[in-house]
Design brief:
five-stranded mixed beta sheet, alpha/beta, six-stranded mixed beta sheet, D-Maltodextrin-Binding Protein, domain 2, 2 domains, 13 strands
Length: 287
């Protein structure tokens, strides 16, 4: 009997690779489903989810505000910054007013980092969209494709490697959010398309949970696989980065994580940075 193909989108970075290791390398039994993995940057995945192209996809929590009519958030697969997160970096110290003058290189308009920076600055700012893995060199050079760049909003492993480019951190948005709200900063999650139906959604959510749990229980082999997706990371830094974003939050959002998602998106809506009030829904936790 042929299996149902589940087109599965996630970012080509170590934490997502670690999370999906068991599914990508057939380490667990997947029953009636076959997972077809598509690796793209998060902004591209947000756009594909907006078109409903993927059955299962990593998405920015910011983007989920515009996807909730078509997708439901998995109970597992969260990327949370618990006292750390996306950073704003620059070649030199900049005042808040200088930062507001920009332009800031950002990894995408629907990334959670983009919304978090708006909440931090409390107003809109000039920016240029740059592929996330090109932001550090763009800031170091002060330009992107002929456009000036004063600062950069960095995600993924750039949070650990920015100093290698001679840059300094102006603000860690995860730390700022934690100090202000007492909550972790919800950055990304995995979402399942609603038209799969309730039974399939719960079964696929359970398989994702099993994949994450397998990686955590077989950490070394999963880390070796994830290292292949770490741009310039050594084993120690790869381990550190994965540990930041694949942990107890990733197995289940929990009540605090769910509250963080709701508050993050509600603040974005109340301050006018999100144009529709989000309707947040999670798949029930397995078991």
């Amino acid at each position: 009997m042929s299996k149902q193909v589940i087109r599965t989108g996630h970012s080509p970075d170590p934490d997502d690779a670690f999370m999906f290791y068991a599914l990508a390398r057939d380490k667990i039994e997947t029953g009636p489903y076959r997972f077809e993995h598509l690796l793209e940057d998060i902004q591209s995945l947000n756009q594909r989810a907006g078109r409903g192209e993927l059955e299962l996809s990593a998405v920015s929590i910011h983007a989920y505000a515009y996807l909730s009519d078509r997708y439901v958030l998995c109970s597992c697969g969260a990327s949370m910054g618990d006292g750390y997160g996306p950073m704003v970096v620059a070649r030199q110290e900049l005042s808040r007013q200088q930062l507001l003058q920009g332009p800031v290189a950002v990894p995408g308009e629907q990334t959670s980092a983009f919304l978090a920076l708006h909440l931090y600055l409390q107003q809109r700012f000039p920016y240029v969209v740059v592929p996330f893995d090109q932001i550090l060199p763009a800031v170091a050079q002060g330009q992107w494709q002929g456009q000036p760049v004063a600062a950069g909003l960095i995600i993924h492993e750039g949070q650990l490697t920015y100093a290698q480019h001679g840059l300094r951190c102006l603000v860690d948005l995860g730390r700022w959010w934690k100090q202000r709200t007492g909550l972790p900063l919800p950055l990304g999650g995995n979402a399942l398309r609603r038209d799969l139906g309730r039974q399939a959604i719960q079964e696929i959510n359970r398989l994702l949970y099993q994949s994450i749990r397998y990686a955590l229980e077989h950490r070394q082999e999963a880390l070796e696989y994830a290292l292949g997706f770490g741009r310039g990371l050594d084993q120690r830094t790869n381990d550190q980065f994965v540990g930041m974003y694949v942990n107890q939050w990733t197995l289940d959002w929990g009540a605090e994580g769910r509250r963080a998602v709701e508050q993050f998106l509600e603040e974005g809506y109340q301050q006018g940075f999100i144009t529709r009030r989000p309707q947040v829904e999670f798949v029930p936790s397995p078991g």
